[in-house]
Amino acid sequence: MHSLTASSGPALVGVVRKDWASQNSIALSWSEVERLPSDIVDYEVKYFEKEQEQLSYSSTRTKAPSVVVTGLRPSTVYVFHVRVRTAAGYTAYSPNFEFATVAEDPDIADQGQVLVVVTASVGGFSLLVILTLFLLITGRCQGYIKARMKSEEKRRTRFHSGHVPFSGIKTYVDPDTYEDPTQAVEEFAKEIDPSYICIERVIGAGEFGEVCSGRLRIPGRMDIAVAIKTLKGGYMEQQRQDFLREASIMGQFDNPNIIRLEGVVTKSRPVMIVVEYMENGALDSFLRTHEGQFTVLQLVGMLRGIAVAMTYLSDMGYIHRDIAARNILVDENLVCKVSDFGMSRVLEDDEPEAAYTATGGKIPIRWTAPEAIAYGKFSTVSDVWSYGIVMWEVMSYGERPYWEMSNQDVILSIEEGYRLPAPMGCPVTLHQLMLHCWQKEANQRPRFNNVLSFLDKLIINPSSLLTLVNDVQSFPDSPEDMPDYPLFISIGDWLDSIKMSQYKNNFLAAGYTTLDSISTMSLDDIRRIGICLIGHQRRIISSIQSLRLQLHHIQHSGFQV
Ligand code: ADE
User: Where are the domains of the chain?
Assistant: First the structure.
């Protein structure tokens, strides 16, 4: 073993523990080192196959004192050691620790890799034959094979022990496995001449700098609308690498429902990432500003697009970790595309929902599966959980999941078995699919290809969408179990808080004087007291659901009045 970077100082990491292992992944953690957190830049985890020690190694970085190392071979012993990067440089490595992945289980698809094999066995061979014929006919075979060999060779040096997983099938390559991250950018992103980019206006602020809209005018090509992410001046090399990392991920994908990378500018300043422009911006705010304006079929169409992207990503072995409506962009034709590929390693600091977990990771709690929150077990089925939350966000026109409940209460409620109720006007089948995505047991959740074919069936047979969950959904407890003490807030204050104070007299005249009596109201009751506008019904029903959640939580946490 050797290191390209000299180490100095004693090893600050002592014991490295294995938290869990699957066929292709091992989760590790170690004690936080006794230094000011601001002194620690990150941890570097180096690992190699025990049998192949002298051949090659891989490394990955993490800001938390834990990591999930993915892309490993089943039934294989790996050697791990960890060192700390401080502002002054690297410390020495911890001692070596040996941990093994588990044996192959044909029934369980780990990170979509079984799906890759299936896809490959069905379509791969015929595609290969067609491609070879095409290349021979057009005389491009030699150049292609050379280029392919070169890139395979590079890949072999990155995957320890020369093992290329599923060669011939497109799998995601983690840019962190490159010794030099610049190589990953060169391999997966085209360099754009900055004179081809015309910046028009600033449309937002990212973690690394402004996000602008503009035009990309490549000679001989039609010009296109683009969004341009910029890296603001005065950055450190590490920030430049973190910024460009997203481009090396995005550049590996080619799917109609994934934001397309046009290219990067790295050879001049400012450094930029150029992607296709999405006219309607982020899905959450788009839905909020168009509340009640789409048919159920249009909403399901949006969800289908996201499921297409997620099926593709899981087939490639990529785990997104931050699937949420805020990270989906919408184009002028309502096509939804998955974006924000910054978080596959650690959460970006500009993620507004990021919260620290007990294990030190930063996670958007209300979108994240319980096993990922509890012990960092991210997988394609933890992405499925998040997808279920996106379904709920879409069907409720951008409502905040679990409303204003605290992150800690969300975690406790999920643990108790609570799940988000169906938004008003949501077809029963869609809510059932959400509940399926939110199964506590990860292996019981559907895979993305199941979700996609289910949605396709609904779209082909729209009558299946006609049965709506037409009531405020009940909890595991019946309304009779609700506490009979009033919440300490008046009906007037409650209606003010949801900007519906014009209906105060409707509630009072019908005898609803306490919030706990309101918490048992059904949609029919809301209509009966004279609230006819669908948008207003939606807002009131959503708030009643939130009240019921709070009551349920108060009851379960043993709150006494
Ligand atoms: N905001 C961030 N990325 C964007 C994009 N590609 N199009 C429009 N708005 C964006």
Answer: 13-104, 109-186, 199-276, 283-465, 482-556
Question: How far does residue 273's CA lie from ligand 1's centre (Å)?
Answer: 11
How close are the terminal C-alpha atoms of the chain, in Å?
A: 64
Rounded-to-integer distance, Cα 175 and Cα 158, Å: 10
Q: Which class in CATH covers the domain with range 482-556? A: mainly alpha
Instruction: Decide: 60 and 346 in contact? Cβ < 8 Å.
Output: no
- Phi, psi for 99 (deg, rounded to 5): -140, 150
Distance in angstroms (rounded) separating the CA atoms of residues 194 and 272: 9
Biggest CA pair distance of the chain: 83
Main-chain dihedrals φ then ψ at residue 54, nearest 5 degrees: -80, -15
Q: If you take atom 6 of ligand 1, which residue's CA is the nearest one?
A: 277
CB 75 within 8 Å of CB 21: no
ω into 270 cis (within 30 of 0): yes
From ligand 1's centre to the CA of 275, what distance in Å? 8
- CA-nearest residue for atom 4, ligand 1, is 227
Tens of pLDDT along 350-378? 677 877 666 566 799 999 999 999 999 99
Say if pTM beats, i.e. exceeds, 0.85: no
Tokens of 23: 């066929």
pLDDT, tens digit (0-9, with 9 covering 90-100), for 193-204: 999 999 999 999
